[in-house]
TrEMBL record:
UniProt keyword terms in alphabetical order: ATP-binding, Gluconate utilization, Kinase, NADP, Nucleotide-binding, Oxidoreductase, Pentose shunt, Transferase
Location of the 6-phosphogluconate dehydrogenase C-terminal domain: 347-633
Pfam families listed in its UniProt record: 6PGD, NAD_binding_2, SKI
Name of the coding gene: gndA
Alphabetized SMART domains for the sequence: 6PGD
Pathways per UniProt: Carbohydrate degradation; pentose phosphate pathway; D-ribulose 5-phosphate from D-glucose 6-phosphate (oxidative stage): step 3/3; Carbohydrate acid metabolism
Taxonomic classification: Bacteria, Pseudomonadati, Bacteroidota, Flavobacteriia, Flavobacteriales
Native source species: Autumnicola musiva
Full protein name: 6-phosphogluconate dehydrogenase, decarboxylating
Function field: Catalyzes the oxidative decarboxylation of 6-phosphogluconate to ribulose 5-phosphate and CO(2), with concomitant reduction of NADP to NADPH.
EC number: 1.1.1.44
Catalysed reaction equations from the record: D-gluconate + ATP = 6-phospho-D-gluconate + ADP + H(+); 6-phospho-D-gluconate + NADP(+) = D-ribulose 5-phosphate + CO2 + NADPH
């Protein structure tokens, strides 16, 4: 006979649901808590978390009873069963004779429920230890308990009867799509997957993906769009993980014949924010919801927990926000690195800017590496050690992976020395520059990083130019002489790069009426994404207290910049004199000098514009807003 084990942390409703399920199936109900020895109940009553040795006798007793229940008429058991080793110990009967039903929700939801319970021996303060202990099963039925008891029971019975439908469908099984699908499944979100089938191009992608991951989850897979859409709950939630641009429009077009009012499409790719605004408007006319959700973290992030930046209507976010938060990374407080960024294109704009800052940070690290490698003649291993030391302070993901890169060997040499120095890009950095031009915001460091990649791509011309001009790069310093000053220059460049990026977000928020919460954006960038760092952790509070000012106007930031600026100036000057290009650091210097100059050179520009084009100018001896024109040839 079948034994149904309803499992999960305290407060998910195991007892309530277990009793209802037992009644529905005509079976006896048992609560595993009733099998605890008195000493265990006393410990939990006093707020003392149980250890594994405390559970040994309890698990043995349960396993023995499960064996008896299975031999007789079956049963429903409510049991925490948080660890896989506990579940293995309870598996005293053939696997096919136990059905695991995993009830789950977010920590805050469950904690609120526990706090409302009276006179129960399990104290709410023990909940965190249960969440920390929990190892989610990769099998059984995963049921989210955020809904009503009736909804939860309906979901369980539908699964038991084999006619349940998935709440989420995912289209596009590239690297990110596959990882995100696995993330959803392992977090208890049922998901159907679709990938087109094109002979000799994309053959059995969905089928093979499902087969390869059978041990993780029994993915309903499709290469027929109509059958895929039929497999989803109504109204449907469909995540697109396809290349930005025309491909997104083509997929939406293929979905159109099967869409119904209130269906929701979520574009999880790196689409341009203006395309997202357009698509949302077009689909809204048909009663279809649309969200643009930036997802950062690469393959590993998508699999284990990315930073997610969804933009769209409140209605859309209320529908799937819980799912997105479930699969997102967690910040240091355990909160999801996912937030409703704002309306229409806000999510994809924020992701675009994230990538722009990423371009800047990558270029910054590359310049430090290049100067150490060829200016100070340091080996990759020496540079790795320097970066590792820097990262004790910076706690930067990009610095962390750079250490690994520099230590990677191949054929008795360092792999980094064999990689062609021609960088690629997918466009988001350039989009940031274009957006800054449209909004009238200086974007010096990010633009410099984009252009540095462009010139790196001209490898053949650069090689020919060396033959014409000669190699003017000179070893000009030692590692010992440069290391401390370079670190301070690096820190200054990073701060300025972040300040420039957040300044663009601030202006976009005003111009598009998005009401972006910059502090919250910094928070969701503290884990799961590529630009996570100690600086980002600090920006949460700095932006909370000064949300409408350039970061360089913050007193704490100003104090640091004043300390680092002499080193930044010196490093850039010496490097350029020695023939080493420093596009990111030099742009940071120029931005800082321009930003801190009360008198700029722009008065000459205004005079020139008025001279040849009668564009007018304002005067320092008159009120702002008054404009003047001069006949410059009239003496």
């Amino acid at each position: 006979m079948q034994v149904y084990i309803v499992m999960g942390v305290s407060g998910v409703g195991k007892t309530t649901i277990g009793k209802l399920l037992a009644e529905e199936l005509g079976l006896k109900f048992y609560d595993a808590d009733d099998f605890h020895p008195g000493i265990n109940r006393e410990k939990m009553k006093n707020g003392i978390a149980l250890k594994d040795e405390d559970r040994e006798e309890w698990l043995e007793t349960l396993a023995s009873n499960i064996l008896e229940w299975e031999k007789n008429s079956g049963a429903v058991l409510a049991c925490s069963a948080l660890k896989e080793e506990y579940r293995k110990q309870l598996q005293s009967v053939p696997k096919q004779n136990i059905t695991w039903i995993f009830l789950h929700s977010e920590y805050d939801v469950i904690h609120k429920r526990l706090s409302a319970r009276k006179d129960h021996y399990f104290k709410p303060e023990l909940l965190r230890s249960q969440f920390d202990t929990l190892e989610m099963p990769k099998y059984g039925f995963h049921i989210n308990v955020d809904g009503s008891v009736e909804e939860i029971m309906a979901a369980i019975l539908a699964k038991l009867q084999g006619n349940s439908k998935a709440p989420v469908g995912l289209v596009g099984l590239g690297v990110m799509g596959k990882s995100l699908a696995i993330n959803l499944a392992t977090k208890g979100v049922d998901v159907s997957v679709f990938n087109r089938h094109v002979e000799e191009l994309e053959v059995d992608i969905a089928k093979n993906f499902a087969a390869e991951n059978k041990s993780i989850y029994d993915f309903p897979w499709f290469d027929n769009m109509e059958k895929f859409m039929t497999s989803l709950e109504r109204p449907r939630n469909i995540i697109l993980m396809v290349n930005a641009g025309p491909a997104v429009d083509l997929v939406i077009e293929s979905l159109q014949p099967f869409l119904n009012e209130d269906d929701l499409i979520i574009d999880g790719g790196n689409s341009h924010y203006k395309d997202t605004i357009r698509r949302e408007k077009e689909l809204k006319k048909q009663g279809i919801l649309f969200m643009g959700a930036g997802i950062s973290g690469g393959e590993e992030g998508a699999r284990k927990g990315p930073s997610i930046m969804p933009g769209g209507s409140d209605e859309a976010y209320n529908r799937v926000g819980g799912i997105l938060e479930t699969i997102a990374a967690r910040d240091k407080n355990g909160d999801p690195c996912c937030t409703h960024v704002g309306p229409n294109g806000a999510g994809h704009f924020v992701k675009m800017l994230h990538n722009g800052v990423e371009y800047g940070e990558m270029q910054l690290i590359s310049e430090a590496y290049h100067l150490l490698r060829f200016g100070a003649k340091a080996s990759p291993e020496e540079i790795a050690s320097i970066f590792e030391n820097w990262n004790r302070d910076m706690k930067s993901f990009l610095l962390e992976i750079s250490v690994d890169i520099l230590r990677k060997r191949e054929d008795n040499g360092f792999l980094i020395d064999k990689i062609l120095d021609a960088a690629k890009q997918k466009g988001t950095g350039g989009w940031s520059t274009n957006a800054a031009l449209e909004l009238g915001v200086p974007l010096d460091t990010i633009t410099a990083a984009v252009l540095a990649r462009n010139i790196s791509g001209k490898k053949q011309e650069r090689t020919q130019a060396v033959e014409m001009y000669g190699n003017n790069q000179q070893a000009f310093t030692s590692v010992e002489e440069i290391s401390e000053g370079l670190f301070n220059a690096f820190k200054a460049g990073s701060i300025i790069n972040h300040a420039i990026g957040f300044d663009l977000l601030l202006e976009a928020s005003k111009s598009y009426n998005w009401n972006l919460n910059l502090s919250e954006i910094a928070r969701i960038w503290t884990n799961g994404c590529i630009i996570r760092s100690q600086l980002m952790e600090e920006l949460i509070e700095l932006l909370k207290h000064s949300p409408s000012k350039n970061l360089l106007m913050n007193k704490e930031i100003s104090k640091r910049i004043k300390e680092y600026q002499p080193h930044l100036n010196q490093i850039v000057g010496n490097a350029i004199n020695a023939g080493f290009p420093m596009p990111l650091m030099s742009s940071a210097v120029n931005y800082l000098h321009s930003f801190t100059s009360a008198q700029s050179s722009a008065n000459m520009i205004q005079a020139q514009r008025d001279y040849f084009g009668a564009h007018t100018y304002e005067r320092t001896d008159k009120a702002r807003g008054e404009f003047f024109h001069t006949d410059w040839l009239d003496n």
